[in-house]
Amino acid sequence: MVKEGVVDIAAVQLPKKLKHYIEKFEHLMIAEDRLVVISAVEYGIPTGRSITVKELTKHPLVLSEEKTDLNHFVRHLFSIHRIDHRQLKVKLRLFGTSAIITSVS
User: Fold this and answer.
1) Dmax of the chain from CA atoms?
2) What distance in Å separates the CA atoms of residue 86 and residue 48, rounded to the nearest whole number?
3) Own/partner pairs for 76-83, CB < 8 Å, 24+ apart?
4) Are 36 and 48 in contact (CB under 8 A)?
5) Residue 63, beta-bridge partner list
6) Which of 97, 12, 18 is nearest to 63 (CA)?
7) Angle made by CA atoms 33, 73, 89, in degrees to the nearest 5
């Protein structure tokens, strides 16, 4: 819609690896987002400990619904690390970060 002149400004969330999609537009980075992994305290992953993307394949996961931007980002993250998303132990898919946080807590 920006390209067609329907809207003047659009805010987007893109992984750095997909930055080339916006190169044809004037753009300004206004914030940088982080992807974090959370677990219930009793699950046993120590707070502040780093966990690799490969290690995530060993744990049951709650992820966003298939057709969400967040799910696309997560799939891309795993593909960068040469991990097929079908290897993930997805136990539940929810819509929205709040729902995901609630399900884990």
Assistant:
1) 51
2) 28
3) 76/15, 76/17, 76/18, 77/15, 77/35, 77/53, 78/53, 80/17, 81/53, 81/54, 83/53, 83/54, 83/57
4) no
5) 93
6) 97
7) 115
Residue 10: pLDDT band by 50, 70, 90 thresholds? low
User: Which tokens go with 86?
Assistant: 């079908």
Given a contact cutoff of 8 angstroms between Cβ atoms, the answer to whether 88 and 61 are in contact is yes
Confidence of residue 83 (pLDDT cuts 50, 70, 90): very high
Q: Are 66 and 72 in contact (CB under 8 A)?
A: no
* Model pLDDT for residues 27-81, shown as the tens digit of each residue: 666 766 667 778 777 777 767 777 888 888 888 889 889 888 788 888 888 999 9
